[in-house]
């Protein structure tokens, strides 16, 4: 089994608990720079938990690393499971988008929907869509939106 005592970095002695705390805080701070660093946050929280464990068993690095890996994996799986339940994959009814490019029935284009550019196709019966036209999102097929100009909706009413 690996043993770990005080570590000296640049003339400063750091305990195993302190080292784990530094690693944990650093990984959690990555979230401020990379907002999608969910895995890094889970690993950071786990490192902070291990820093507490290291207070009780400061020299058994093998056990500390094992606890860190198990906690990290557990938090990642739990987080994805919770997030999956909260995220709806259905598209809302009566949503609006804006055409970024012109579209024809046989030629898909791009639309601005919820602040992001999406691939889009004309809904059945739509002959063409001009760039910058306001659209109604009818449905979604994978990552492609099916759209119809709002002007056609107003004609139907």
Descriptive key words:
45% helix; OB fold (Dihydrolipoamide Acetyltransferase, E2P); alpha+beta; 7 strands; 2 domains; 4 helices; five-stranded mixed barrel; 24% strand; single chain; 157 residues
Basic shape: rod-shaped
Strand coverage percent = 15-25%
Class based on secondary structure composition and strand pairing: alpha+beta
Distance between the termini: 76 Å
Strand order of the largest sheet: 3-4-5-7-6
Approximately how much helix is present in the residues?
Answer: 40-55%
Number of strands: 7
What is the H/E order? EEHHHEEEEEH
Q: What's the number of structural domains? A: 2
Rounded Rg: 26 Å
* Model regions low in confidence, pLDDT < 50 over at least 5 residues: none
Quick one: biggest sheet? 5 strands, mixed, barrel
Helix count, per DSSP? 4
**Rounded average pLDDT:** 83
């Amino acid at each position: 089994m690996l043993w770990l005592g005080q570590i000296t970095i640049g003339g400063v002695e750091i305990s195993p608990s302190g080292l784990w705390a530094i690693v944990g805080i650093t990984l959690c701070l990555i979230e401020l720079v990379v907002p999608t660093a969910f895995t890094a946050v889970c690993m950071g929280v786990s490192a902070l938990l291990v820093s507490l464990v290291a207070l009780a068993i400061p020299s058994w690095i093998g056990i500390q690393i094992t606890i860190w890996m198990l906690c990290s994996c557990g938090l990642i799986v739990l987080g994805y499971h919770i997030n999956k339940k909260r995220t709806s994959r259905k598209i809302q009814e009566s949503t609006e988008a804006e055409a970024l490019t012109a579209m024809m029935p046989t030629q898909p284009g791009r639309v601005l929907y919820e602040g992001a550019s999406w691939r889009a196709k004309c809904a059945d019966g739509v002959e063409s869509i001009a760039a910058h036209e306001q659209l109604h999102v009818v449905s979604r097929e994978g990552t492609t939106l099916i759209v119809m100009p709002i002007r056609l909706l107003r004609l139907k009413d």
